[in-house]
Design brief:
CATH topology: TIM Barrel
Radius of gyration: 19 Å
Oligomer: single chain
CATH architecture: Alpha-Beta Barrel
Distance between the termini: 13 Å
Number of domains: 1
Low-confidence stretches: none
Strand order of the largest sheet: 1-2-3-6-7-8-9-10
Largest sheet: 8 strands, parallel, barrel
Order of helices and strands: EHEHEEEHEHEHEHEHHHHEHH
Shape: globular
């Protein structure tokens, strides 16, 4: 599959009232944002069954129905998280049961209103003791049956990736990766580059922190069920360091006549092995704030300046600089 360097992330489209929600969200706004993304040339949407406990997939499905088949974006979704409908605020269990994977696939197909999922991913490694080989075998069967075009994983470590790769090629890896969460560059992204697996990074803007207008007041205004309220990254002292890093990007953004968000995304895309970045939006206007990151090329001196800012602020952990600017075709 040929994908654009940025994809639309539909996590927030799940709405409020579940363990990792972003608070209430208007479905029509979500659909308007997806339409704007596609109008701007973005050709893939990433969602998951657990987002809104099925609701995000349903909203994506509503959007897909408005488009002729020839204009539909690729649709990526995830399985392997089991939630309790009686207690939606409880954290979902990480279960990659070979017996439930086919059913989860059928449920996603139904909610999305499609006949085939372009990329089906395990959302998290199993926590119940099921061998990854058994889970991956069930995923391979879905490819053979034509239910899915490609199979990938999210949040998997290198040892798990190796075990999957021995059975069937891992088409893609979805790790968390941003200027603040950089650990994947040292391990999983390097593995993917060496094995020809695609890498679509999630939270490149660190869930909003690396956007131009984010501040402490924004945290205070977040909905009571917004998962970010509980995250250490959104509390001092980490929040102060993270915002200092964001502010250090402003002069560089001005030189490029770009937004800070675009610079943060371009930094993620500059790493060898990274195929694309998943960027969320709750409105069309938010997309306009970061779409420039799809084509912005950072120079070697830009990357040096960013690395120095990371070191100076002490924000996050992990490698601070790509080996060389990585050229992308959008």
């Amino acid at each position: 599959m040929k994908i654009t360097t940025v994809g639309f992330g539909a996590w927030a489209a799940g709405g409020g009232g579940w363990a990792f929600s972003w608070g209430p969200q208007d479905d029509n706004q979500s659909i308007a944002a997806m339409r704007h993304a596609v109008d701007l040339g973005i050709n893939w949407i990433d969602t998951a069954a657990v987002y809104g406990l099925g609701h995000s997939e349903e909203v994506v499905g509503r959007f897909l129905k408005t488009l002729p088949a020839s204009e539909r974006p690729l649709v990526f979704t995830k399985c392997g998280l089991q939630w309790d409908p009686e207690n939606p605020m409880a954290q979902a269990r990480r279960v990659s049961d070979p017996k439930s994977i086919p059913r989860e696939c059928e449920e996603s197909l139904r909610r999305l209103g499609v006949e085939q999922i372009d990329l089906f991913q395990f959302h998290w490694p199993d926590e119940t003791g099921i061998a990854v080989e058994d889970s991956w075998a069930a995923m391979i069967r879905l490819i053979e049956q034509g239910k899915i075009r490609a199979a990938g994983v999210s949040n998997y470590s290198v040892p798990l990736l190796e075990r999957c790769e021995r059975m069937h090629h891992v088409d893609s890896l979805q790790p968390p990766f941003s200027l603040i969460r950089r650990e994947a560059a040292a391990n999983e992204i390097a593995w993917a580059a060496a094995h020809g697996a695609g890498v679509i990074c999630y939270s490149p803007l660190q869930s909003g922190i690396l956007t131009d207008g984010f501040d402490v007041k924004r945290v205070l205004k977040m909905s009571a069920d917004d998962w970010r309220r509980k995250s250490p990254l959104f509390r001092p002292p980490a929040l102060d360091q993270n915002l200092a890093l964001r502010d250090a990007l402003r002069p560089l953004a001005q030189r490029h006549q770009a937004t800070v968000s675009a610079v943060a995304i371009a930094w993620v895309l500059a790493w060898r092995g990274v195929t694309g970045a998943i960027v969320g939006a709750r409105s069309p206007e938010q997309i306009d704030g970061w779409i420039g990151g799809a084509t912005l090329q950072l120079t070697a001196s830009d990357l040096d300046e960013i690395a120095a800012a990371v070191e100076r602020t002490g924000a996050g952990t992990g490698p601070v600089r790509p080996e060389a600017a990585h050229l992308h075709i959008s």
